[in-house]
Amino acid sequence: MIRTILSIAGRPGLFKLVNQGKNMLIVESLSDGKRTPAYARDKVVSLGDISIYTTEDDKPLAEVFEAVKTKAEGKPVDVKGFADDAAVRAWFGEAVPDFDRDRVYTNDIRKVLNWYNALLAAGITDYVEKEADTTEEGAE
């Protein structure tokens, strides 16, 4: 699901991929629904391609969003409500206990939480791809 959600450097917010043209993408802002082109020179990254450093291996952003959703009970996270950077890191540590505290910066955590809030506001709550159901329905 989040493979079609994009972050574009220099532009605030997140965008949904609508269509592809020659040397450009047509994207729609999740916040206001405006459609704009994103050209080959723009640094465009799919949220599905981003991962967070952990002590074992990298964790895909979709799994991080699921952990944040569980910790926040499906509600938005008040990023500005944290007293300081230590409070942000402590809260994130409860959601993703194995994140690498040396390589993941507080600004990265804030960005992830802001992206989570943006997705939630756009009605996107399923982050991890569901496995295809292999059971046969109606078979007895």
Number of DSSP E strands: 7
Q: Which strand order spans the largest sheet, edge to edge or round the barrel?
A: 4-3-2-1-5
What structural class results from the helix and strand content?
alpha+beta
Order of helices and strands: EEEEEEEHHH
The mean pLDDT is 89
Helix content: 25-40%
Work out the helix count: 3
Rg from alpha-carbon coordinates: 17 Å
Largest sheet: 5 strands, antiparallel
Briefly, what is this?
By secondary structure, the protein is an alpha+beta fold.
Protein model, in words:
There is one protein chain. The chain is an alpha+beta fold and 140 residues long. Helices cover 27% and strands 21% of the residues. The strands form 2 sheets. A 5-stranded antiparallel β-sheet has the order 4-3-2-1-5. Strands 6-7 form a two-stranded antiparallel sheet. Strand 2 (14-21) and strand 3 (24-29) form a beta hairpin.
In terms of topology, how is this protein built?
Layout: E1 5-8, E2 14-21, E3 24-29, E4 35-39, E5 44-46, E6 51-52, E7 59-60, H1 61-71, H2 85-95, H3 106-121
Antiparallel strand pairs: 1-2, 1-5, 2-3, 3-4, 6-7
From the structure above, extract its key features:
two-stranded antiparallel ribbon, alpha+beta, 140 residues, single chain, disordered C terminus, 3 helices, five-stranded antiparallel β-sheet
